Amino acid sequence: xxxxxxxxxxxxxxxxxxxxxxxxxxxxxxxxxxxxxxxxxxxxxxxxxxxxxxxxxxxxxxxxxxxxxxxxxxxxxxxxxxxxxxxxxxxxxxxxxxxxxxxxxxxxxxx
Length: 111
What we know:
This is PcfF. InterPro entries: NikA-like. By secondary structure, the chain is mainly α. Helices cover 63% and strands 0% of the residues. It has helices at 16-28, 34-44, 53-79, 84-102.
């Protein structure tokens, strides 16, 4: 019986396309031993998932802001005049957009 450091064997199947992709990634990583590469990826590899809840909140807020901007534009187009109050509201809405962006809601989220 062999004296192996690693006694447990794991097996999994891949498609031909997946195997080709693994081979490409191995070459990019300059690793020729598939077992070493797969072990390294299984232990140290990173999986990125997206959290779309923050993006949904941002879209909802932007939709509300867009609706308000459209209402202001409609008022301006209907009588050719827009009040200082409406201009202030518009500026405040734009500030909200910038605050959303600075808070990271307009950036890609991952966990």
